[in-house]
Design brief:
Radius of gyration: 21 Å
Distance between the termini: 68 Å
Order of helices and strands: HHHHHH
Number of domains: 1
Number of helices: 6
Strand content: under 5%
Shape: globular
Helix content: 55-70%
Structural class: mainly alpha
Low-confidence stretches: none
Length: 176
Amino acid sequence: MTIEARPTASLDTTTPAPPDTVSLYQEGMIAGVLGALAVAVWFLVLDSLSGRPFWTPTVLGTALFRHGSGLGAADTLPVSFEMVLMFSWIHGMVFAGLGGIAARLLGYVEAHPSAGFGVLLLFVIFQFGFIAVATVFAEPVLRALSAWSILVANLLAAAAMTAFLWRRHPLLRVSP
């Protein structure tokens, strides 16, 4: 006679997230990276047309990592691939996080269609809030970059993220 002992309790105290939540966050992160890529390509095109490729991420990286040191004469700021890579990494991570939040809100709207207008309004407020905060706290950067190019970049990112998420959720309905 053999006796088989099996543990009755698990030492793992974490409960895994439901697959729907996990896939929502994965979709959101992909959407966020696509949004970041849209912004990066937009500014690469603008910088290339002005004869200074990678200048915008250099300016933004300098503002973020060197606290704006050297932005007094931003027109003469040399392109730094160190700043480009560091800023691009942070930019992609922030957008991946924002995409995850957006996808989670999308999941909520799928279950509660009447909340869709509120989420849309939150997006509009976030866009204008971003411009307002940038105007107040990032004045040296706005002297170097034009506000319209930043606004267009935000709209391109939103369009890329929306297109990706809409293709993944074609039955999404929003009611007021």
